[in-house]
Write a structure and sequence with these properties.
Strand content: 5-15%
Number of domains: 1
Largest sheet: 7 strands, parallel
Helix content: 40-55%
Number of strands: 7
Low-confidence stretches: none
Family: Belongs to the short-chain dehydrogenases/reductases (SDR) family.
Structural class: alpha/beta
CATH architecture: 3-Layer(aba) Sandwich
Protein name: 3-alpha-hydroxysteroid dehydrogenase
CATH class: Alpha Beta
Shape: globular
GO molecular function, one term: oxidoreductase activity
Mean pLDDT: 93
Pfam families: adh_short_C2
Distance between the termini: 41 Å
Keywords: Oxidoreductase
Order of helices and strands: EHEHEHEHEHEHHHE
Number of helices: 8
CATH topology: Rossmann fold
Amino acid sequence: MGLLDGKVALVTGGARGMGEAHVRLFLDEGARVVFGDVLADEGKALAEETGALFVPQDVTDPADWERAVGAAVEAHGRLDVLVNNAGILRFRRIADMTLQEYEQVIDVNLKGTWLGVKSVIEPMKAAGGGSIVNISSVEGFIGAEGMSAYAASKFGVRGVTKAAARELARFGIRVNSVHPGSIDTPMVRTPEVAAEVDGEAFFKSMVIKRFARPVEVSHVVAFLASDRASYCTGSEFTVDGGMLTGAGY
């Protein structure tokens, strides 16, 4: 028996990184998975390998949300789980960041999450309930230099999560947020981050002194998507290796 047997899940940003880990673990746990991404080649390759259904999706576009949700319902007859995973990071100090760069981060990370919540309400109501898991970050609790846009978006995801949890509980829809810390993904290995972050000092500040594997986040996401989390809503789950204990951070 899998943790997610019988569930139909939609995962955004599912072509690589944490999203890919979510897709793979959900399949292993018995879910039928549809995933979206702007990375068409990577998405098609993962779909061919795993059997999950890939849908090209820009999470800032309401029409793309309609297509992705529609594809899930058409293929599997229902939708039970949404993982709002798609996100981007632009490392820029406020003085150096353009308004266009700031708005791009807000659009993908916050607007995209809000559109996702809005888009799945009716199919989840039709299914008799569901679970929405919004991927925020430890930057949704703390601020870091060069992360103003990212932190603003991830703080915002916390607010959307709590408001949605209150609005949707009456329909049997649970909404929670997950807050990863230092995860080994392509997003955190970008040259702009590597050039600006003191890796040695950052490593010394860790409580668990290693980066997490993406699947370590996926296990928490899968729990929240499952019926074992039936009394969890509006809550915030950190997967940060103790980062928010404040030890040297």
